Write a sequence for this structure.
């Protein structure tokens, strides 16, 4: 299975129930209000925070590589009476008819692009979809290794209809040189009729300010800034969560 297809099948059910954070709309609302509409959320999943931005009156499209996520997002949009376009495409081969004043990833979805070559292709595609004065916002995350005492430990939740959804990180490789963490993860859906199991390789590929800037330049983008989310100062090699803003060179 390719990394872009990670969020499919029972993983989508488990993700919706087990996700530890909800995505705050505010930083993305502010970004789109600053840089303009229309906007595009890349890796929009089931619609958080995309649908909140639409509900606030902004014109925002979504794109995701998982058809299961796209369907959920469209269903959630209809349930909230929201008109938006949700496309089924990969960030690295984005090919849409429109150009956008604002393009953003919500949360560390850029880290799901599993190597520098894929990340570069995504940045090139983003460049092609930006208006001349548009901007893209890309959150960056440097993960720690999963602690040993969490490997093999299951997190579980009930879907409210008698189905248990389970997530277990089984083993992990953490490669600082390749800036890649690969976690073999087991997802289970335990229903009265039987248990479905999916073992997936969850890959996080991270970037330093320097490596991200080099990729951006290669992609024809200018880094306006990379800000450490914790200190609100320019990110350093010690930053673990930061936000990059890029524009066309
Ligand atoms: C961590 S989820 C976040 C989703 C959303 N913010 C939410 O809460 O529902 C990451 C999303 O990125 C999508 N994704 C992963 N790789 C992708 C790629 N190469 N191109 C586009 N979307 C991708 C996944 O299918 C998934 O829906």
């Amino acid at each position: 299975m390719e990394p872009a297809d990670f969020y499919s099948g029972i993983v989508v059910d488990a993700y919706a129930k087990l996700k530890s954070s909800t995505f705050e709309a505010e930083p993305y609302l502010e970004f789109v209000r600053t840089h303009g509409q229309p906007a595009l959320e890349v890796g929009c999943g089931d619609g958080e925070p995309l649908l909140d931005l639409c509900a606030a009156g902004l014109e925002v499209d979504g794109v995701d590589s998982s058809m299961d996520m796209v369907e959920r997002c469209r269903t959630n949009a209809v349930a909230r009476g929201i008109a938006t376009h949700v496309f089924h495409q990969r960030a690295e081969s984005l090919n849409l008819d429109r150009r956008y004043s604002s393009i953003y990833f919500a949360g560390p979805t850029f880290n799901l692009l599993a190597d520098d070559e894929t990340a570069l292709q995504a940045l090139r595609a983003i460049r092609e979809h930006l208006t001349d004065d548009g901007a893209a916002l890309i959150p960056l995350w440097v993960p720690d290794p999963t602690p040993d005492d969490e490997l093999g430990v299951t997190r579980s939740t009930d879907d409210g209809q008698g189905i248990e959804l389970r997530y277990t990180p089984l083993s992990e490789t953490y490669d600082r040189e390749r800036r890649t963490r690969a976690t073999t993860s087991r997802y289970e859906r335990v229903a009265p009729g039987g248990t479905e199991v999916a073992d997936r390789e969850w890959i996080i590929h991270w970037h330093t300010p320097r490596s991200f800037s080099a990729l951006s330049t290669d992609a024809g983008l200018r880094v306006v800034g990379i800000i450490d989310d914790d200190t609100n100062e320019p990110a350093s090699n010690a930053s673990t969560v930061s936000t990059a803003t890029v524009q066309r060179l």
